Amino acid sequence: xxxxxxxxxxxxxxxxxxxxxxxxxxxxxxxxxxxxxxxxxxxxxxxxxxxxxxxxxxxxxxxxxxxxxxxxxxxxxxxxxxxxxxxxxxxxxxxxxxxxxxxxxxxxxxxxx
Length: 113
What we know:
This protein is an alpha/beta fold. It is built from 3 helices and 5 strands; from the N terminus they run βαβββαβα. The protein has a 5-stranded mixed β-sheet with strand order 1-4-5-3-2, sandwiched between helices. A hairpin with a 2-residue loop joins strand 2 and strand 3. The longest helix has 26 residues, at 51-76. The chain is globular, with a radius of gyration of 13 Å.
């Protein structure tokens, strides 16, 4: 089961207390939630580019996470995630972002190595 993060307080909580890993294409924040379901938020700032490029970056991140979730959903339930797009995000393919996400989640001991 997967839903989206909607409240600003959820984003702020992850930025303040979550674990984060960075890569030139993507920054990943995550922490346990009490909901027992997987919640995801995506941030793209104006630095990324115009609306078209920001939307493209969001779509790529969403597609990549969808595949990661299909593969590893049972490990991801009970966590909140915020993915922050970076300048390089829009030049990547979703499978590149998938590999980055999986690497970050393994580093954070959510996924088995």
